[in-house]
Write a structure and sequence with these properties.
312 residues, alpha+beta, D-amino Acid Aminotransferase, Chain A, domain 1, four-stranded mixed β-sheet, 24% strand, D-alanine--D-alanine ligase
Length: 312
């Protein structure tokens, strides 16, 4: 008997389109001999829709989900990756792919992620947490990166090199979140590390990927076809080992499950954590699946491992 898998895409956030692409790719790549895929979509307005894109609401979606064996949430960002869909599955008693409520919420909150990383000895960029109430007291003294605390796909992220650019950068970040991080610019190579927790509990870390970007690796750079990915990243063995160690330490400290992409700056002093994505882009051409492919795990095999490792 085939395993019935609900694949949820879309979402009520700024990563809606990216999530639709990821969900469609996942749904299309799950082996039809093993899996019966049931697609569900969450609209930008929060409306749940069935495979024919007919609005069915949350109650209708609950009926569909109850008829499935496993839920595969492929909703990036707030109201999805942040633990919201994990909570829905937990309350409904449904097995689901990926990280649970707490790690999803912690990893989506970049400030909380920094605190967890520091607690286990992983370096992070020096920075301050800013709210609308405290922003008026902030003064520019050196180049910084301004980013929303809990938005994804690098949206609302700006590098500020001159004082006059600080307020517009804060405005762009506050448009997406009511808390903003202002971090020192870190000089180093941008290197991403993927981590998979297998069904047997072991961790698999494939070759790392380096991003060569001119300035901030923002939304346009990620999805506009202009990104220069180097895979595998050319790393000294000591650097590769340090990155693997840092990635798995943060993965474990947050309590992640399934797959996560842990992004670093590789500096002369070693890895500096940038952020953690507990539901990274999941098309076959996204960074994490490409890393696993480079490590000998094909896309369909990765998806199969994720379904088999679902929370029970």
């Amino acid at each position: 008997m085939r395993t019935r898998v609900a694949v949820i895409g879309g979402g009520q956030n700024c990563e809606h389109d990216v999530s639709l692409a990821s969900a469609a790719s996942v749904a299309g790549a799950l082996d039809p001999a093993t899996y019966d895929v049931v697609p569900l979509t969450i609209g930008r307005d929060g409306t749940w829709r069935d495979r024919g894109l007919r609005p069915i609401g949350l109650s209708g979606a609950a009926q569909v989900l109850r008829g499935c064996d496993v839920v595969f949430p492929v909703v990036h960002g707030p109201r999805g990756e942040d633990g919201a869909l994990a909570a829905l599955c937990e309350l409904a008693g449904l097995p689901y792919v990926g990280s649970g409520i707490r790690p999803g919420a912690l990893a989506m909150d970049k400030w909380a992620t920094k605190l967890v990383a520091q607690a286990v000895g992983i370096a992070v960029a020096p920075g301050v947490l800013v709210t609308p109430a405290t922003a008026r007291h902030l003064r520019w003294t050196h180049p910084v990166v301004v980013k929303p605390v809990a938005a994804g796909s690098s949206q609302g992220v700006s590098r500020v090199d001159v004082p006059d650019a600080l307020q517009p950068a804060l405005d762009a970040a506050f448009a997406l979140d009511d808390r903003v991080l202002v971090e020192d610019v870190v000089v180093g190579r941008e290197v991403d590390v993927a981590v998979l927790k297998r069904a047997d509990g072991s961790l698999f870390v494939p070759p790392a990927l380096e991003i060569v970007a001119d300035g901030i690796f923002d939304y346009d750079a990620k999805y506009g076809g202009h990104a220069d990915f180097r895979l595998p990243a050319r790393l000294e063995e000591a650097d590769a080992k340090a990155l693997r160690y840092a990635a798995t330490e943060v993965f474990d400290a947050l309590g992640c499950a399934g797959v996560a992409r842990v992004d670093f700056f590789l500096t002369a002093a070693g890895p500096v954590l940038n952020e953690v994505n507990t539901m990274p882009g999941m098309t076959a051409h996204s960074q994490a699946p490409r890393m696993f492919a480079a490590g000998g795990m094909a896309y369909a095999e990765l998806l199969d491992e994720l379904v088999r490792s679902a929370h029970r």
